[in-house]
């Protein structure tokens, strides 16, 4: 028996940027709760186009900076909609070790395998 294709309704699509999503990230044997909201185009961090003359390392650094800015904007939006002291805040995110920042960003941005 073939599975029926599911379609998004207009209301469901419109609600995506208003819904607070939550997940847990495991780090060194303990869990951290994170919350975020999808962004509308006008809420996306503004970035200059990446200069193709930059070295690969410099381009990667610019992409990482944009990912950090986007992650923080998504976290801030969730906290504004649904304040929760038990959820990692954007302010605390800035103080995290780099390896933990990558885990949190990957979860929020939907990156299953960062090496893809």
Helix and strand topology:
Elements: H1 10-15, E1 21-27, E2 30-36, H2 56-81, H3 90-93, H4 98-109
Antiparallel strand pairs: 1-2
Helix pairs in contact: 2-4
Question: How would you describe the overall organization of this protein?
Answer:
This protein has 116 residues and is of the alpha+beta class. The protein is 41% helix and 12% strand. The chain has helices at residues 10-15, 56-81, 90-93, 98-109; strands at 21-27, 30-36. A two-stranded antiparallel ribbon has the order 1-2. Helix 2 crosses helix 4.
Question: Which key phrases capture this entry?
Answer:
single chain; 116 residues; alpha+beta; two-stranded antiparallel sheet
Percent in strands: 5-15%
> Which sequence of SSEs, written as H and E, runs from N to C?
HEEHHH
CA(first)-CA(last) distance: 33 Å
SS elements, strand count: 2
Task: Describe the sheet with the most strands.
Answer: 2 strands, antiparallel
**Overall pLDDT metric:** 89
The secondary structure category is alpha+beta
Low-confidence stretches: none
How many helical stretches? 4
Radius of gyration from the alpha-carbon trace, in angstroms: 16 Å
Strand order in the sheet with the most strands: 1-2
Dominant shape = globular
The helix content is 40-55%
């Amino acid at each position: 028996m073939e599975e029926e294709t599911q379609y998004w309704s207009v209301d469901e699509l419109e609600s995506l940027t208003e819904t607070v999503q939550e997940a847990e990230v495991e780090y060194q044997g303990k869990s951290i709760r994170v919350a975020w909201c999808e962004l509308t185009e006008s809420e996306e961090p503004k970035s200059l186009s990446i200069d193709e003359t930059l070295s690969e390392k410099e381009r990667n650094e610019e992409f990482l900076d944009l990912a950090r800015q986007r992650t923080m904007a998504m976290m801030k939006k969730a906290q504004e909609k649904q304040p929760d002291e038990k959820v990692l805040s954007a302010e605390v995110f800035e103080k995290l070790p780099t390896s933990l920042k990558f885990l949190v960003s990957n979860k929020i941005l939907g990156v299953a395998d960062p090496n893809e």
